[in-house]
Amino acid sequence: MLSQKSIDIVKSTAPILKQNGLQITNKMYEIMFSNHPEVKEKFDMSAQADGSQPARLASAIYNYASKIDDLSALKPMVERIANRHVQTHVLPEEYSIVGSSLLQAMQDILGEAITDEVMAAWTEAYQALSDIFIAREHDIYQEQKSVIAP
């Protein structure tokens, strides 16, 4: 569960994320693919090349920051992304790769705006969202097994 302090801090970053989101996500993918080339196969590289995937992620991050105090409003987004993650076989342990890349990109792009307090809040917020995705993806896998099982 997220602390109220982290919720308030993350929500306060929404405007800067709206303004700089695409720069952050482009940098995140650059960092991630450089440090973890093995995850490239999980991504649609044509959507990377045309910029649509970084744009979708930037929008999702902004939505999360702006609605972090009302997670029920994010259910459609979580459902859509979780189903895509199941299709591409995203593993729970890969969330830490994305998270560390995202947080590094935020620091690189936003510089001094990312104080230790903001970084701590986003670290907590990213972990909370990862836990939501991992749990939902687990449920989807279980639902698929029950449909396939005789």
3D architecture notes:
This protein is mostly helical and 150 residues long. The protein has 7 helices and no strands. Helix 1 crosses helix 7. The longest helix has 33 residues. The radius of gyration is 16 Å and the shape is globular. The mean pLDDT is 93.
Primary descriptors:
7 helices, 150 residues
The SSE string, one letter per element, is HHHHHHH
- Alpha-carbon Rg, integer: 16 Å
**Spans of at least 5 consecutive residues with low confidence:** none
How widely separated are the two ends? Answer: 38 Å
Major sheet details: none
Beta-strand percent range: under 5%
- Give the proportion of residues in helices: over 70%
Structural class: mainly alpha
Shape: globular
Number of helices: 7
The average pLDDT is 93
Q: How many E strands?
A: 0
